[in-house]
Amino acid sequence: MRVIDLFAGCGGLSLGFQQAGFDIVAAFENWQPAIDVYQANFKHTIHNIDLSNVSDCSIFTQYEPDIMIGGPPCQDFSSAGKRNENNGRGDLTISFAKIIGKVRPRWFVMENVDRIIATEKLKIAKRLFYEVGYGLTEAVLNASFCGVPQIRKRFFLVGLLDAEDHFLEYELNKRQSKIPMTVYDYLGNRIDTEFYYRHPRSYARRGIFSIHEPSPTIRGVNRPIPKGYKKHKGDLVDDLSNVRPLTTKERSLIQTFPENFEWIGCKTEQEQLIGNAVPVNLAKFVGDCIENYLKTERHTHSVNTKVMLFC
What we know:
By secondary structure, the protein is α/β, with parallel strands linked by helices. The chain has 10 helices and 10 strands. The radius of gyration is 20 Å and the shape is globular.
């Protein structure tokens, strides 16, 4: 199936769907640091284009996509932001819906933070999808149950033309693991410390974590332990002498980017790109669910055709 990625960022969604066997034919993004990293890691074209107000959709239809995927910027919905869905970036969710409505690929996948569920923007987007004939499956997935060593909850909305709602729920539910994946489960001894520091949003939260648990959400900032850090009651170690923050590379590995993925640009840009990315294995998980649904659909069609011919 031919796929194009809108709001592609550094390519987490693209790479996950590519690993699931899909053919990524083009991507779209308008932040140059993200484009530079994407171009360094993929062979297909990435267009530098503002997707907030696209009037001519021939730039998409020329690729004849079977599926369009994308994660519209989520800062207006995120717990890390001011959570005002009318600050402007929330409108990109509506832009995504309008583009899908004009192109009408058979499938689409939209990814965002879980807080989008309570927004008016999502209600508007879903109405636009329904108006052009999509059945919808929506789910909040915890990445640690989907092959990612990280507690990261993300919202996925999957659309399929002329389908009933909830069509993909069975696949999404049955493929999840029973227990969360830890950093050690995924990386073994590739991180040379048992305990590491993740800078909390406030000191009401702990900052010390073990590799024998899932990582907390990888964010766009990566800071050293501040001088005079006061141990939180939830921290897992008393002696901080061997505790350090994760490196940029280690954070990318926890986001399940492969070892050979090339990160370019300044450190601040790299950290932001990694923190904003969709974990590759989470995207692959969703892609695998779609692929298995398609296999079941093809098998059912084949059986029904044989029955018709036999009759």
